[in-house]
Specification:
Elements (H helix, E strand, L loop, with lengths): L3 H4 L3 E3 L2 E5 L11 H15 L4 E9 L7 E11 L3 E10 L2 E11 L25 H7 L14 E5 L15 E8 L8 H14 L1 H7 L8 E2 L4 E6 L2 H4 L5 E11 L2 E9 L5 E10 L1 E2 L6
Antiparallel strand pairs: 1-2, 2-4, 3-6, 3-10, 4-5, 5-6, 7-8, 8-11, 9-14, 10-13, 11-12, 12-13
Helix pairs in contact: 2-4
């Protein structure tokens, strides 16, 4: 089991940072949301502003679980906001490029909240995924180390995943990070939201296909995430993730995701484009 604060920590100064990627966050290599969280930590270390506002990144190569070098440059800075460019390399290979907006704390402005949270049971009333797996009559699914970092409370459950029929391309579940559920540092805590937005759009897409017809995996090309309420997020141990894949065509798979707290506050939203490549998807 990994710890998000420890495993995204960066060292360095003056726009040059270094981190070590942990194998505890493996899904087809380092999880994309985890890589983005490391890049975000470097942006936070460099920024003069207090809060992350948005992240937009491209995944350029598969990284190894080893040290990475991160360069951060301020593109524009004002009293209220700062734009930062982040580049992550590993042994000379560029693995990620990103743009991050950061903003000052305590800004005033418009206040409204139109989105309506899904009506779902509270996480405390639901059996955990671990409990469901232990009670399952079918053979246990192969799982990536990444999922040991999460306490999942699924809203629906497929008993026999390897023989599942096609269904709506939607994934909806509660998640709590382990061993630490939330973080006071807004740059660390926003990493939870990045990981949530990134990770579960592929499960949504794959759910739209019967198990015996799925012959591709679809790693992410990019990731976009907007952080709406960092104050509320830092008080929220449980995150409700609703991910959807409205379209897949021409080798591309589109996805969107929203993250809510138990009070129905929209904490983050975003999306990504995924690129199909041949090969049966390992079970998650």
């Amino acid at each position: 089991m990994g710890d998000l604060a420890d495993d995204t920590a960066v060292s360095g100064a003056d726009g040059r940072y270094r981190a070590v990627l942990s194998g505890d966050w493996e899904i087809w290599g380092p999880n994309g949301g985890y890589l983005a969280a490391v890049a975000l930590r470097a942006a936070g270390a460099h920024s003069a502003q207090a809060l992350p506002a948005s992240y937009l990144g491209h995944f350029l190569d598969v990284a190894a679980f080893a040290p990475v070098d991160i360069e951060v440059e301020t593109v524009r800075r004002s009293r209220r906001a700062e734009s930062l460019r982040v580049s992550m390399t590993q042994e000379g290979r560029r693995v990620l490029d990103a743009l991050v907006w950061a903003v000052a704390e305590g800004l005033d402005g418009l206040e409204h909240a139109i989105p309506t949270a899904p009506e779902v049971p509270a996480p405390a009333t639901l059996a955990s995924a671990a409990e469901r797996r232990a009670a399952a009559a079918t053979a246990p699914r192969v799982r990536f180390p990444f999922f040991d970092n999460l306490d999942e409370r699924p809203l629906t459950w497929v008993e026999d995943w390897e023989h599942r029929p096609a269904a709506d391309p939607v994934h909806r579940s509660w998640y709590r990070f382990l061993p630490t559920a939330r973080f006071d540092d807004p740059w660390v805590d926003a990493g939870r939201l990045l990981i949530a937005v990134d990770t579960f759009q592929w499960p949504a897409a794959s759910r739209g296909h019967a198990a015996d017809s799925l012959r591709h995996i679809a790693p992410s090309l990019d990731l976009a995430c907007r952080f709406h309420r960092p104050d509320a997020a830092r008080r929220a141990p449980w995150l409700l993730v609703e991910a959807r894949s409205p379209v897949a065509a021409g080798g591309l798979v589109g996805g969107t995701a929203e993250v809510w707290d138990e009070a129905g506050t929209l904490l983050a939203s975003g999306g990504q484009q995924m690129l199909c490549r041949p090969g049966p998807a390992p079970s998650g």
